[in-house]
Amino acid sequence: MAKHASRQFILARLVLGSAAAVLLSLVVWIAVVAGGSGTAGQPLLVQPSAALQAAGESLPSAVPTTEAASTTPSLTPSASVSSSASSSPSPSASVSSSASGRPKPSKSPSRTPSRSPSPSPAANTLAVTYSTSAVWRDGFIAAVRVVNNGPAAREWTVTLTYPSNADVEVRGGWNASVSAGGGTITLRGNSLAAGASITAGFQGSKDVGGAVNPISCAVGGGACRMS
Hints:
Elements: H1 2-34, H2 50-57, H3 64-71, H4 75-86, H5 89-99, E1 126-136, E2 139-148, E3 154-161, E4 169-174, E5 177-181, E6 184-192, E7 197-205, E8 216-219, E9 222-226
Parallel strand pairs: 1-9
Antiparallel strand pairs: 1-2, 2-7, 3-6, 3-8, 4-7, 5-6
């Protein structure tokens, strides 16, 4: 817009300047023709007409005013550009705020606790034989022979139950831990290797005459017989 106005101004100036030059040439020519009969060698002073003076006064005074006018509007677009550029970070701020949302934690599937397999009962690999080696009026000596017929070593426990009227008590034992109570005697042995055997026994007391035999013999993981 400023450049277009500047071009129109310069074109008008050129037209007015050309018209003034033509008028000045006509005035000079008329003066020369009119004053040809004057004294030779005397300079002729020609005063410009009022129309020529008015045309000269109508011309613009200086060109720098046009340049100043043309440069002044050029500052406005740069200001508008800078303001629009400064406001551009607004969308990025909204994007960052939306992106900063915390994701919802996903629920982990619940795990069903696995049940540990129950230990299988020990196989009947123990063979026990009960016997009495000595008997007297108020006491006796008994023994149990334990054989491990299984493929692995294992501990053993033998339980002997006597008649309640015999009032059997333990006086001592060997090769096993022996305990008594309520007419029951229990022998507990340490680990017995596979294919091995052991004989354990005890000395007991009784309140009946003659021999006294247990009414039951039991062993965990095996069978017991009385000889």
